[in-house]
Amino acid sequence: MKTPSEVLREGELEKRSDSLFQLWKKKRGVLTPDRLRLFPAGPGARPKELRFHSILKVDCVERTGKYVYFTIVTTDRKEIDFRCAGESCWNAAITLALIDFQNRRALEGFRSRQERAVPAAQPEPRTARAP
Question: Which GO terms describe its cellular component (predicted)?
Answer without folding.
Answer: cytoplasm; membrane
